[in-house]
Amino acid sequence: MSTTPTASGPSVRSTVHGYPRIGPRRELKRAIESYWKGATTARELDDVAAGLRRDAYTRLREAGVDDIPSNTFSYYDHVLDTAVMFDLVPSRLPSPARAEERDERLRRYFALARGVQGAPPLEMTKWFDTNYHYLVPELSPSTRPRLVDDKPVAEFREALDAGFRTRPVLLGPLTFLLSAKVADDAPEGWEPIELLDQLLDAYVRLLADLAAAGATEVQLDEPILATDEGRAAVGYLERSYKRLGEAEERPSLLVSTYFGSIGPAALRVLKESRVEAVGLDLVTDGEGFEDLAAVSGLGSTRLVAGVVDGRNVWRTDLSSAIGRLGTLLALTDELSVSTSCSLLHVPIDLDAETSLAPELREALAFAVQKAGEVALLGRILSEGEAVDTGASTPRNPAFTDARVRARLDALGPDAYERPEDRGGPDRVTLATTTIGSFPQTSELRRSRAAHRRGELSTEEYHRILRAEIDRVIALQEDIGLDVLVHGEPERNDMVQYFAERLEGYATTENGWVQSYGTRCVRPPILFGDVSRPEPMTVEWITYAQSRTEKPVKGMLTGPVTMLAWSFVRTDQPLAETARQVGLALRDEVADLERAGIRHIQVDEAALRELLPLREERREEYLDWAVASFRLATSGVAPSTTIHTHMCYSEFNRIVGGIEALDADVTSVEAARSRMELVEALGRRGYKRGIGPGVYDIHSPRVPSVEEIEASLRLAVSHVEAANLWVNPDCGLKTRGYAEAEQALRNMVEAARRVRTDL
Ligand code: GLN
Ligand code: ZN
């Protein structure tokens, strides 16, 4: 199908909200890590960074994008950059902006992200519902916002010198303050938002500097408006943009919102403010259009319409996008076509992939291709350029598997239920176990890499894996743990390992996305109906079981986590896709059980992460998340013990979810939150097993027996000891053997002591 050229069309521009920083070959990661090791100088690092910035602007211009953003680059994280720029750093670490030397500045900057001896770094947490992590600013009445750094100005000037008049991107004041935490020294009841007026003064100064440098437009990101918390803060929103709008020397302002719609109240505030442009996410939920209708359009405020999905990898259906943009033209005088959010969350270039199936590749667009899409849409709308828009529309029938659909349709409600009373095997009181992985030694990683490159035969690689399992089993027997694990030595990653073995999933060679700092991940692509051609883990678990009389726990990644850490198809509801993954896992669970495995753990590390940003959507989410888990786990005999594991402790949000999953044992993080979850479950009369993590594996510190014992005694005071399991709070993959072994010995001894006193 092709569009007919319109006569003299309106002037429609194109832009993107941001661009990946890591470089097409993860150049930034290599440059930073080499600087950390002392192998290169600050100067060399800065040169690599400048080259990457210039390349990004060039790629965007070549793609045809009209308005190019800058200051989307960061050495670690843009929230950290904002804190540093306004001198909002905790007193335990020196402020980078106050150092004279470039080298010292950088050293201090990275210290905030990574800590130094005696001074822990800023905490890290998820950026909204993405898999990007930001550093959480710590604010208190004694942190005073002042503009002390000129990064956005310097990057604007640098781009201008290279021939690009960019639009500097700043994190907005509201999102910054609402994403910060209260520092320990703040008085009870104090909130970071109390710094708003001072912070706005600093923004006003920054806007003046940018205007003086020649910037004509600045972007302020306010994704917080997509959350309930942000929506409730319209008063502060109004105050912020009234102040910034009234600033005398300033570029024009684009307030950009994303990760969901913002509701009519916030939109009205922005429309009535002096802000010149508003960016809306018109992809994530359908409500952006309703919001626009509710405020009768934006009038003379420019609409930056996020119609190209900035955080998933599918090509845009251009004819449908043109239709939607046409509707928007009636609601605003000026329009820009954009991505729904920064392209930070997608890989850079599809052309770097050489082995994707052609019918899949045709359906994909990475950052470079998405930039091309917004540019093309802009041209179609303003110049009436005629294009063939048909190619991306229909789903490829090759992605559909009738057998999977028929099997799912045939399932009755009993496929999601286990009997209420499961009796179960004789249980050890305060049974000790671990979460699954044991330390991944560098030898193991080297062997895996060599095997992938074809330099190590599969036979030899498997021999190495079996030897590792022997060692892990022997170690656990020696330590005296009750339920053993095989240690997961065969897994590169808890999602990718399964994605490589399931139909309907593809993995990429170079599809890297920043997770935090220099850590990048390569999320697999779930493109079609999912099924399991053959067992995925049975060989390894049964091998481990053959080496011991003690029970070995099988280890799988649950449906929600498989979705959360992948790029997922959008042509059907997530609920349906999750059910398919649940069914494939159900087959694996059945095979494990048939092979004699009596404990099976299905990890849902990301259950909390996919939780919708707004309360009103959470129930529906939990319904399907729970259903897919139960589909995976309900096929087993009553005597088989189903475990699950989750990586967080915000108990108020997950307590209902834990009950609904109906696992026999749930292990969670708890060491740092003083067993609050256990207390909450105890109060609710929870009768299944709970394994509160009794020590924090995220630190190399070995906890003492007494410390673990104290945690356990606290847990025993909340729930019956017969329902309590004893385990660390996450997998041991990132630890060394020496510390892991000592910590587990202490844990087993602590359990023994508490047991004797019961
Ligand atoms: N079983 C996994 C492991 O032990 C769980 C990892 C996780 O929860 N992130 O590594
Ligand atoms: Zn975990």
Automatic annotation (TrEMBL):
Residues reported to bind Zn(2+): 645, 647, 669, 730
Necessary cofactors: Zn(2+)
GO function term, MF aspect, one: 5-methyltetrahydropteroyltriglutamate-homocysteine S-methyltransferase activity
Cofactor binding note: Binds 1 zinc ion per subunit.
Keyword Glycoprotein appears in the UniProt entry: no
Enzyme class: transferase
Residues involved in L-methionine binding: 435-437, 488, 603
Chain residues that bind L-homocysteine: 435-437, 488, 603
Function: Catalyzes the transfer of a methyl group from 5-methyltetrahydrofolate to homocysteine resulting in methionine formation.
Family note: Belongs to the vitamin-B12 independent methionine synthase family.
Name this protein carries in UniProt: 5-methyltetrahydropteroyltriglutamate--homocysteine methyltransferase
Lineage: Bacteria, Bacillati, Actinomycetota, Actinomycetes, Streptosporangiales
